Amino acid sequence: MMFCNVKIPDRLFELTRARLRRDASFSINEVRQQLLAETRADLVTISSIERNWPLIINRVLRACIGELEDAGEIGHIQRGVWARA
């Protein structure tokens, strides 16, 4: 996946998938904040503009949630809250 002609590192997707699989249930905001805190070095390599970082994280998060939901690993409980299936 690309962001402004720069490939988003696979490490971001791996961390996101691991985080989504870790807990019995999770909120999108919790995951988003954790990823922003843990992946700053990766985000800087993609974009030096800090206001772009949440956009990158959201793109990765949506892709991983869609992938895991299609695989039947997670399910939607209520707005912003997901759980392992």
Provide a descriptive summary of the structure in words.
The chain has four helices and five strands; from the N terminus they run ββαβαααββ. The chain is of the alpha+beta class. It is elongated. The protein starts with a strand and ends with a strand.
Q: Topology of this protein?
A:
Layout: E1 2-3, E2 6-7, H1 10-22, E3 25-27, H2 28-38, H3 40-46, H4 53-70, E4 74-78, E5 81-84
Antiparallel strand pairs: 1-2, 3-5, 4-5
Helix pairs in contact: 1-4, 2-4
Summarize the structure.
Helix content is 58%, strand content 19%. It has 85 residues and is an alpha+beta fold.
Task: Give the mean pLDDT.
Answer: 87
- Uncertain runs are none
Count of helix runs: 4
Q: What is the succession of H and E elements?
A: EEHEHHHEE
Label the overall shape.
elongated
Strand content: 15-25%
The portion of residues assigned to helices is: 55-70%
The Rg value, from CA coordinates, equals: 13 Å
Query: What is the spatial order of strands in the main beta sheet?
Result: 3-5-4
Structural category = alpha+beta
Biggest sheet descriptor:
3 strands, antiparallel
Task: Please tally the β strands and state the result.
Answer: 5
Distance between the termini: 26 Å
Main traits of this protein?
5 strands; 85 residues; 3-stranded antiparallel β-sheet; two-stranded antiparallel sheet; alpha+beta
